[in-house]
Design goal:
By secondary structure, the protein is an all-beta fold. It has no helices and 24 strands. 0% of the residues lie in helices and 48% in strands.
Length: 260
C-alpha cells in the first residue's frame, strides 16, 4: 500500500512487482497524510485523512470498501500502525500539548492511551512482532534519534545517538533488526541495525533521498521511497541492499508498506 498522486493524493495498492495498481480512495474532497498500515490479516488498511482541516485516523477494506472513522479529536492524528495481534493501533497525535506523542487505541477507536510525553516530538511508531515494544523516532533538543518503549510507556531507551537525523524506524519480521532513515551521510539513506542498536550500516548509497523503508513479511525485501529519478517513486530492493528497482510509474508515489 502507498500514497500516490494522479489528480489528487489517494491510497493505492499494487502487487509486489509493481503491477496491478488500484486506487482505493478516489475522492478529491479529502487529503491523505503520511504512511498507511495493513491490519495483520491483510484485510484492512489504517490511514490518516484530513477533512476540513482536521486530521483523523480511518480504516478501509483492502478492496476500498467499508471506510470507518476511528478518531474525532480536534488535534492532528496521524501515522497509524496495527499491533501484531490486530487488537490495537498505535498513532501519533498533538492533542495533548500541541506537539506529537505516541498513543495507542483499540482497533475500533476506543480506549485511547498516551504512551510517550515528550515536550519536543515523538513520531513514526512501529510495533515489535511480539507486541511488547514500540520503536519510534524521538526528537529531543532538535535532534532526532531512534527510541524504544514498552507498550505502556514505562521504559524508554535509545537505539541511536547520532547528531544527524535518524527516523522512520521499522522492525524486521523476526524482531532482530530495525530499518531506519538517516541523513548522517549528507542525504537521506536507508540504514539497518541490530535490535540493540549495534551494527549500523547503510543499505542505500545514492545522492537522492531514500526514505520510509518497509520490510516484506518474509524479510527478504525492502520497499522505500526515493526521488532519484522522474520525481518521487516507490522502489524495491533485497534486504541486503542489492537489486534496487523502481516499482511505480506515476509520480509522486511514496510511503510504501508491505501487506503481511
Amino acid at each position: 500500500v502507498y500514497l500516490g498522486e494522479v489528480d489528487d493524493v489517494d491510497l493505492w495498492t499494487m502487487s509486489g512487482d509493481g503491477t496491478g495498481a488500484a486506487n482505493l480512495t478516489n475522492d478529491a474532497a479529502i487529503e491523505l497524510r503520511g504512511r498507511a498500515a495493513w491490519s495483520p490479516d491483510g484485510t484492512r488498511i489504517a490511514y490518516a485523512v484530513e477533512v476540513d482541516g482536521n486530521a483523523d485516523i480511518y480504516v478501509i477494506g483492502a478492496d476500498g470498501s467499508g471506510k470507518t472513522r476511528l478518531t474525532t479529536d480536534p488535534g492532528v492524528d496521524d501515522t497509524p500502525v496495527w499491533s501484531p495481534d490486530g487488537t490495537r493501533i498505535a498513532f501519533i497525535s498533538d492533542r495533548a500539548n500541541g506537539e506529537f506523542d505516541i498513543y495507542t487505541m483499540a482497533a475500533d477507536g476506543s480506549d485511547v492511551q498516551r504512551i510517550t510525553s515528550n515536550p519536543d516530538r515523538d513520531s513514526s511508531p512501529d510495533w515489535h512482532p511480539d507486541g511488547s515494544l514500540i520503536v519510534y523516532r524521538g526528537r529531543v533538543g532538535g535532534n532526532s534519534n531512534i527510541y524504544i518503549t514498552n507498550v505502556t510507556g514505562g521504559i524508554t531507551y535509545n537505539l541511536t545517538t547520532d547528531p544527524a537525523f535518524d527516523g522512520d524506524p521499522t522492525w524486521s519480521p523476526d524482531g532482530e533488526q530495525v530499518l531506519f532513515t538517516t541523513d548522517r551521510t549528507g542525504d537521506y539513506e536507508i540504514f539497518v541495525m541490530d535490535a540493540d542498536g549495534s551494527n549500523q550500516r547503510n543499505l542505500t548509497n545514492h545522492p537522492a533521498d531514500d526514505e520510509f523503508p518497509s520490510w516484506s513479511s518474509d524479510g527478504a525485501f525492502v520497499a522505500f521511497q526515493s526521488d532519484r529519478q522522474w520525481g518521487l517513486h516507490v522502489y524495491l530492493m533485497r534486504a541486503d541492499g542489492s537489486e534496487q528497482s523502481v516499482l511505480t510509474d506515476t509520480a509522486p508515489s511514496g510511503y510504501p508498506r508491505f501487506r503481511p
